[in-house]
Every structure is written in structure tokens, then in C-alpha cells.
Write a structure and sequence with these properties.
This protein has one helix and nine strands; from the N terminus they run αβββββββββ. With 151 residues, it is α+β, with helices and mostly antiparallel strands. The protein folds into two domains: 39 residues; 106 residues, Immunoglobulin-like. A five-stranded antiparallel beta sheet has the order 1-2-3-7-6, with no helix packed on it. Strands 5-4-8-9 form a four-stranded antiparallel beta sheet, with no helix packed on it. Strand 1 and strand 2 form a beta hairpin.
Length: 151
């Protein structure tokens, strides 16, 4: 008889734990989906001078999180401020906190000094992007940018 009472208490305890866990799980998933919807995506933006000082490079990454992102580069002459329209621009992305190699992202020009491409940030965390701008005179100008991609 005592053994049956213990087994019944154990089963009742397990049932109550299962109900409690199910209730916690459904309320936390409701909170996470509403907070994710309420948080607007933001873009990372910065302007850097190339290592030779010849160009100013403006980089925008949107929405700046792991996964697919839209990259936009605008390059201008540091001396005249004029947009660089005749160039080949490539981004080289490197994860700083884990050795994942370096990926390259070739960019497309709109003919007005803006270069765009879609690319993948495989993980959240610290990244470095090397912006390589090869101008019409075949000179390579480079700038490096570091940023943190969110999850």
C-alpha cells in the first residue's frame, strides 16, 4: 500500500512539473516573438579614410545582424569631395573572434558613386571588413572597418 501511495505521489509530481514547464514555455515564446517584432532593425554606418589617405569610404550595413545583409559603399576623393564613379569595389569580411577564413563580396556600381551588394554574416560577433577600391587608374585604395553584428 505504501509503495502504491509513493508511486501515485511521484506520478502526480511529474504531471505537475510537466504542466508547469509547458506553461513557462508558452509564455516565454510569446514574449520573445513580441519583443523581436517590436525591435526595429538598425543599420551600421561609418566613414573611414583609406590607408593611403586618397579616399573617404562610407560603409553602411543593413540590418547589421547575422544572416543576409545589404552592404553599401560610397567612395569620395579626400581632396575634392567628388564621388568615385569609375571603380571596382570588393568587401573582404573576416570574423575576428573565430577563424572562419575571409569571404569576398564583389559590389555593383550604380554609376553615381554608390556600390551595393548582398552578403552573409555567418555569425553574430566582432567582424572586420576590408573595403578595396580599385580606381580607373588601376590604383588600389583600402580601408578597414570593425563592427559587431547582432544576433
Amino acid at each position: 500500500m505504501k509503495k502504491m501511495v509513493r508511486i501515485a505521489c511521484l506520478l502526480l509530481s511529474l504531471l505537475l512539473c510537466a504542466v508547469f514547464l509547458a506553461a513557462c514555455n508558452s509564455s516565454s515564446s510569446g514574449q520573445s516573438s513580441s519583443s523581436a517584432t517590436a525591435t526595429p532593425a538598425s543599420a551600421f554606418q561609418t566613414t573611414s579614410k583609406t590607408s593611403d589617405g586618397a579616399l573617404n569610404v562610407h560603409l553602411s550595413i543593413s540590418p547589421d545582424h547575422l544572416g543576409e545583409n545589404q552592404f553599401t559603399v560610397t567612395a569620395t576623393s579626400a581632396s575634392s569631395g567628388q564621388a568615385v564613379t569609375q571603380a571596382n569595389v570588393t568587401l573582404f569580411t573576416t570574423m575576428l573572434t573565430m577563424d572562419m577564413g575571409t569571404d569576398n563580396i564583389p559590389m555593383q556600381s550604380d554609376g553615381k558613386g554608390h556600390f551595393t551588394a548582398s552578403g552573409l554574416l555567418a555569425m553574430s560577433g566582432r567582424w572586420e571588413i576590408r573595403v578595396a577600391v580599385r580606381t580607373a587608374d588601376n590604383v588600389l585604395h583600402e580601408a578597414k572597418v570593425q563592427f559587431t553584428a547582432s544576433a
